Amino acid sequence: MEWEAIQKRLNDLLEKGRHGELRGAMMMLNEVDIAQYMEGLDKEKLLLVFRILPKDISADVFSYMSDEQKQTLIESIGDQEIRALIDDMFLDDAVDFLEEMPSSVVRRVLQTTDTEKRNLINQFLRYPDNSAGSLMTIEYLEFFSDVTVRGAMDIIRREGLDKETIYTLYIVDSTHHLIGTLALRRMILASEDTVLSDIMDRNPVFVHTLDDQEKVAEVVRHYDLMAIPVVDKEDRLVGIITADDIMDVIEEETTEDFEKMAALTPSDDEYLKTSPFKLALNRIPWLLVMAIIAIFTGLIITQYEDVLQATGSVGIILTSCIPMLMDTGGNCGAQSSTLIIRGLSLGQITLKDFFKALWKEFRVAVIVGAVLFVFTLFRVKFINPLFMEDGSGITWAVAFVVAAALFGTIMLAKALGCAMPMLAKRLKLDPALMASPMITTVVDMSSLFIYFSIAKAVLKI
Amino acid sequence: MEWEAIQKRLNDLLEKGRHGELRGAMMMLNEVDIAQYMEGLDKEKLLLVFRILPKDISADVFSYMSDEQKQTLIESIGDQEIRALIDDMFLDDAVDFLEEMPSSVVRRVLQTTDTEKRNLINQFLRYPDNSAGSLMTIEYLEFFSDVTVRGAMDIIRREGLDKETIYTLYIVDSTHHLIGTLALRRMILASEDTVLSDIMDRNPVFVHTLDDQEKVAEVVRHYDLMAIPVVDKEDRLVGIITADDIMDVIEEETTEDFEKMAALTPSDDEYLKTSPFKLALNRIPWLLVMAIIAIFTGLIITQYEDVLQATGSVGIILTSCIPMLMDTGGNCGAQSSTLIIRGLSLGQITLKDFFKALWKEFRVAVIVGAVLFVFTLFRVKFINPLFMEDGSGITWAVAFVVAAALFGTIMLAKALGCAMPMLAKRLKLDPALMASPMITTVVDMSSLFIYFSIAKAVLKI
Question: What is the pTM of this model?
Answer without folding.
Answer: 0.75
